[in-house]
Amino acid sequence: MNMYEWIEKIKTGNQKPMPVLSYPAIQKMNITVRELISSSEDQARGMKLIADEFDTLASVSLMDLSVEAECFGSQIKVSDGEVPTVVGALVTSPEEAEALQVPAVTSARAGIYLKAIQKAKALISDRPVLAGVIGPFSLAGRLVDVTEAMILCYEDPDMLKTVLEKATEFLVNYVLAYKEKGADGVVVAEPLAGMLSPDLASEFSETYMKRIVEACQDENFIVVYHNCGSGTVRMMEGILSTGCKAYHFGDAVDMRDVLKAVPSDTVVMGNISPAAQFLGGTPESVYEETQNLLRDCAKYPNFVLSSGCDIPPLAPFKNVESFFRAAKDYYGQ
Q1: What pTM, to 2 d.p., does this model score?
Q2: Do the beta carbons of residue 124 and residue 46 sit within 8 Å?
Q3: What is the pLDDT averaged over residues 242-268?
């Protein structure tokens, strides 16, 4: 599939949503998150289940921001009903940063996730299949501790950049491995960068994102940038400089402000709240919020309706169904 042409077609009037919807498949499959993240077969089957049930613009895999840190050796907290998280800091000194080894892309669970995409591609042929990976600053933050990463920007930028260099090297290799497995692109989640000032984001995030894009993106494989931080609108110039083919934003920002800040030829996705609506809302509130967002944003041809981030595993399916029903009703499908 020519993904550059796919992106251009979206801008001529897309009416299909593209939520980050994968984890809730566990409810239909009667399995736990723990089982899902441990099985390439279950991940591919879950993606196929969602693709069969909902007419999405693309099939998006798990947004698991612990996978890459686990490859480096970080401790991971896993549960049956929640997304895995990183526990503690792996790198606590400049010496440990220098000694940090770049792991193989098949380390820990990464190999499972690569196989999952390969299997999903064999099952899903009517739309693009996009893998999910973490962004460079967000990965570095998990390796040194999120709070410490913010401090290191000021107190020891060289140590942080040592970790960033290794994180970026791994991510380039990992994304290229997804490309080799047949993925049509990746959604790169860089939420921690949303906590930085525009200048710091340029220095510690966007510079490294550009490397990933330059090494991996071409007409058959695109990079979608995701940031769910509240500061993304003021960071927009730097974010757009990464060269990604599409940009996905969380519910911490008003999509109307985002669309005003983005050129009309740039695809923008978002941003119904995963927590407040998909998980904590009702079918009625999800429907109303989705309709309101579409009334505000569907007039922009480059807008794609989505969730603000990955939809939680235990989000009621009735709420997900209401989201798609609202989109169909708005577009008169």
Answers
A1: 0.96
A2: no
A3: 96
Distance CA 304, CA 270 (A): 7
How confident is the model over 99-145, as pLDDT tens digits?
999 999 999 999 999 999 999 999 999 999 999 999 999 999 999 99
Residue with tokens 């792996």: 90
Residue 282: pLDDT band (50, 70, 90) is very high
Reported confidence tier of residue 333, pLDDT bands at 50, 70, 90: low
pLDDT (average), residues 218-238: 95
**Using H for helix, E for strand and C for coil, what is the string for the chain?**
CCHHHHHHHHCCCCCCCCCECCCCHHHHHCCCHHHHCCCHHHHHHHHHHHHHHCCCCCEECCCCCCHHHHHHCCEEECCCCCCCEEECCCCCCHHHHHHCCCCCCCCCCHHHHHHHHHHHHHHCCCCCEEEEEECHHHHHHHHHCHHHHHHHHHHCHHHHHHHHHHHHHHHHHHHHHHHHCCCCEEEEECHHHHHCCHHHHHHHHHHHHHHHHHHHCECCEEEEEEECCCCCCCCHHHHHCCCCCEEEECCCCCHHHHHHHCCCCCEEEEEECHHHHHHCCCHHHHHHHHHHHHHHHCCCCCEEEEECCECCCCCCHHHHHHHHHHHHHHHCC
What is the overall mean pLDDT for the chain? Answer: 96
Yes or no: say if 327 and 294 are a contact pair by the CB < 8 Å rule: yes
